[in-house]
TrEMBL record:
Residues 31-135 form the Ribonuclease A-domain domain. It comes from the Eukaryota. SUPFAM superfamilies: RNase A-like (SSF54076). Keywords: Signal. Residues 1-25 form the signal peptide. Pfam families: RnaseA. The gene is LOC100932160. This is Ribonuclease A-domain domain-containing protein.
Length: 146
């Protein structure tokens, strides 16, 4: 019995942080989500270019489409709040108001991206700690002309 425990000791030490600190991976997922989808209000929305954005982010290169959310980060986070205090956990939630969205779609030629600007409602997956971890869907309310 002692030899079994001795052999599993290193494995348990590696997995221990996952049990003791379950929120740490969730925080990383939230940070990764924001890195991939958030556009700062410090940028001029009308001047943003999908070719520029998709080309500068290594993890987006060659991707057929991607959606960016133009908002204050806390407005995105607030979608996962149920009533201002409690958070939705491990559930999909639609925003109550539309956000400025920049959708980038790869051109048929494969050379560059088409910019599609809109006001859209967004559906986020709120993770186990109640933070947005993925963008699930969008519903366009109104297109914004370029």
């Amino acid at each position: 019995m002692a030899s079994v425990l001795k052999g599993t000791g290193p494995v348990l030490l590696i997995l221990l942080p996952l049990w003791v600190f379950p929120g740490s991976s969730e925080d990383l997922a939230w940070q990764e989500f924001m890195k991939q989808h958030h556009l700062s209000l410090g940028l001029d929305f009308s001047q943003l270019s999908c070719d520029g954005l998709m080309g500068t982010m290594e993890f987006l290169k060659g991707k057929a489409s991607h959606i960016f959310i133009y908002a204050i980060w806390s407005q995105i986070e607030d979608i996962c709040y149920r009533d201002g205090l409690d958070r939705y956990e491990n559930v999909r939630v639609w925003s109550k108001k539309p956000f400025k969205i920049l959708t980038c779609e790869l051109l048929k030629s494969g050379q560059g991206y088409r910019d599609i600007r809109s006001y859209s409602y967004i559906e986020l997956h709120c993770g186990l700690n109640g933070f947005p971890v993925s963008l699930e869907d969008t519903k366009v309310k109104k297109k914004i002309s370029n």
